[in-house]
Amino acid sequence: MPALACCVDAAVARPGYAAFIAGDSSLTAAVPFSFSTITTTVTAASSNSNSTHWSPAQSSDLYRIHGWGAPYFSVGNSGNITLRPYGTDTMAHQEIDLLKIVKKVSDPKSVGGLGLQLPLIVRLPDVLKNRLESLQSAFELAIRAQGYESHYQGVYPVKCNQDKFVVEDIVKFGAPFRFGLEAGSKPELLLAMSCLCKGNAEALLVCNGFKDAEYISLALLARKLALNTVIVLEQEEEVNLVIDLSKKLSVRPVIGVRAKLRTKHSGHFGSTSGEKGKFGLTTTQILRVVKMLHNSGMLDCLQLLHFHIGSQIPTTALLQDGVGEAAQIYSELVRLGADMKVIDIGGGLGIDYDGSKSGNSDLSVSYGLEEYASAVVNAIRFVCDRKSVKHPTICSESGRAIVSHHSILIFEAMSATAPTNPAMNQINLPFIMEGLSEDARADYWNLSDAAIRHENETCLFYADQLKQRCVEQFKEGTLGIEQLAAVDGLCDFVSKVIGASEPARTYHVNLSIFTSIPDFWSIGQIFPIVPIHRLDEKPEVRGILSDLTCDSDGKIDKFIGGETSLPLHELEGNVSGSSGGANGRYYLGMFLGGAYEEALGGVHNLFGGPSIVRVSQSDGPYSFAVTRAMPGPSCGDVLRVMQHEPELMFETLKHRAEEFFGQDHGNDGSNATLASSLARSFQNMPYLEAVSSCSLTAMNNNGFYYCNEEDYNDVVESGAGEDEQWSYCYA
C-alpha cells in the first residue's frame, strides 16, 4: 500500500498544494518510494510468481483430471495429456501422448502429417471397447455375487451418437456378449437393422419412440429378417397398429410396454420420469393393453417391460427405488399371463463430469459401474424372489456411459485479450486531471487519502467511482477518449497494486459452441475443458472462452467445480516460455463429450462440424495409429445443407469477376488465379487457419494471398480450365 500511496499522492495536487498546481515537479512525495520503485516491485512480484515450480501432478489436481479422467486420462511427465486406451489394464508402453496425435493430424503432408484443419474430434475405439467390456463385467460380477439366475444383455441407444463407425464398433465389440441397439425413429431403425445384420443373432433390437404404421412395419420386417426385434409401446393406441399389421404381414411380434413409474428423478435429466413424463403408459393403460392383447390371442407376445427414470441418475438409492417399482409391475404382468422375459431398465447410468463423486448435481454421480450393476441386480432379485417369479434377462440402454469417454474435442486458442494493468510509468497523471469535473477531482483526492491510510477497499471504491464519473463525462462530450483511457489505466493500476484479482481474460478459440458443444448453450451442460499440453507450467491467467460465431451466447464462462473462469497459460508470443512441442500453438481439449454433442450440433453461422480421426493403440514408436481421417465439412458442404448450390454460386462469382476485370484481363493468368482462389474458398473449412501455418505471402498473384509458395504454385498450375478448377476443388 505505501507504493500506491506514493503514486496517487505525489501525482496530483490536493487543495492547498499550490507549488504542484503551478507545475513544480520537485515536490517531495509523501512516502519514500518513487514511481520506478513501484514498477520494479510489481514486476518483481510477477516475475517471482512465474518462476514458481510447478509439476504435472499439480495440474492434475487443479483441473481435477484424476477425478473425471480416471482411468483413461492423466497428465504425463512431459506436461501433456496422456491417454490410457485400456483403462486400468493399460501398460506404460501403451500410453498415448494426445499432443502427438494432434501434431500428426494437423501437420502439413510435406512433413509427414495428415494436413487436417482444427477443430478436431479424436475418437478412441479402444476406449469404447473397454467401456462396453467394463459394463458387461460389472453386471456379470453382480449376477455371480448375488446368485441371480439370468443374464445381462445391454443395448446401445444410437441417438447418443449415430456415427457409422461408432455404431459399427459397438456392434462388433459387443457381439461376444449379445450387445444390441436401441432405435427411436425410422432412420435410426434402418441404421440399427443394417448394422445388426453383422452382429450377434441374439442381440436385441429395441424399438422405442412414437410410432406410425411405417415404423411398425419396418420393425416387423426386421423380425422377418431374423433380427431379435422388440416393439416397445409408448402410447396405448400403438397396440392396435401392432396387432393389425402383424396379422397382415404374418409376423408374430415381440412386444414390450414402457411404464410410467411413480419414482421420479428430480434433476434436469429427470423430466421424462414420473407420472407426467413424456413417454410411457400408466398402470391403467397397461391393463388395457394386456386386455387387448389377450382378446387378440397375442398376450404371449408381451415379453418386455421398459422404463426410464432419467439420464444421470445421481444415486443408487433412487435407482433401486425405481427398479424395485418396475420389478413389481413386471411380476404383475407375469401373474396376468404375459410371457415376460426381459426387464429393460432404460438409460440413466451417469458419468462423473466434474470428478466430485457427488449425488447432488447433474454433473456427477455418487457411484461407479460396479455399484450401479449391483443395485440393479439386487432390486430385481429381491422382488422376483418374493413374488416367486423367474429372474428376467436384464437389459439397459446405457448410451452416455458407453460413448462419452471415447471422444475428445480438440481446438485452438487463436488469441487472447491483453492484460489491462499498465505500469506506473505508462500513466500520465497530470494529463488525467485536465478537464475532470469537481466531483471526479474529489474522487481522486479521496482515493489519495485512502491510499495513505492503507484502506484497500476504500481505494477500490473511489477508483471505481472516479471511473464511472469519467465515463459519464465522456458520454456528455466533456472528456476526450485519451483522458478516459488514462483514467482506465490508473484504475487498473490501483487494482493491481492493491492485489485485487485481475478480471478473466477472453481467449478466442477456433470453434463454434453451437456446433460442437450445443448442450452447453442449450441446457447449461458443463464438460471438463483442459489445456492438453504445458501442464508442467503453472497457469498464470484465468480466462473464459469465446468462439467464432457472431452471437453473444458463443462463449464458455462456466466450468467444472463451479468456476466462472478457467486457469490458462499465456499464449506464446505474449510471454516467453515452453511451447510443449506445439510450435507456439495453444491447444485445449473438451473431454467426455462423445454422447449427444455431434448429434445435436447445428450449422449456426454456417460453421460445420470438426475434422475427425480414429486412433487405435499400436506398438509403433508413438503407441498409436490413425486408422481413419476425415476433414470437416467445407464451406460448400454447409452451404448445401441450407439449400444453396455452391457450383452455381461459384459460376456467378466467376462471371462477375470477368465482368469487373474485363474479358481480356485474363491473358496474364489473373482470371484463372481468381477463379481458383474462389473455388478454394468453397473447398476450405469455415474455421480459421492458424497464423503460424499460414504466412500469407503474395507473389505476383494480383493481390490474392496463399499460405505459402507451394500453395500458390498449385493454384497457378490448376488454372488451365474452368471444369478442372471446380473438379480440383471437390475431388
Automatic annotation (TrEMBL):
One of its GO terms (biological process) is putrescine biosynthetic process. The gene is LOC111282050. Pathway: Amine and polyamine biosynthesis; agmatine biosynthesis; agmatine from L-arginine: step 1/1. It catalyses: L-arginine + H(+) = agmatine + CO2. Keywords: Decarboxylase, Lyase, Magnesium, Putrescine biosynthesis, Pyridoxal phosphate, Spermidine biosynthesis. The modification N6-(pyridoxal phosphate)lysine is found at K159. The keyword DNA-binding does not apply. Residues 151-404 form the Orn/DAP/Arg decarboxylase 2 N-terminal domain. This is Arginine decarboxylase. It comes from Durio zibethinus. It comes from the Eukaryota. Belongs to the Orn/Lys/Arg decarboxylase class-II family. SpeA subfamily. InterPro entries: Ala_racemase/Decarboxylase_C (IPR009006), Arg_decrbxlase (IPR002985), De-COase2_CS (IPR022657), De-COase2_N (IPR022644), De-COase2_pyr-phos_BS (IPR022653), Orn/DAP/Arg_de-COase (IPR000183), PLP-binding_barrel (IPR029066). Gene3D superfamilies: 1.20.58.930, Alanine racemase, Lyase, Ornithine Decarboxylase, Chain A, domain 1. Its cofactor is Mg(2+); pyridoxal 5'-phosphate. Its EC number is 4.1.1.19. One of its GO terms (molecular function) is arginine decarboxylase activity. The active site is at C550 (proton donor).
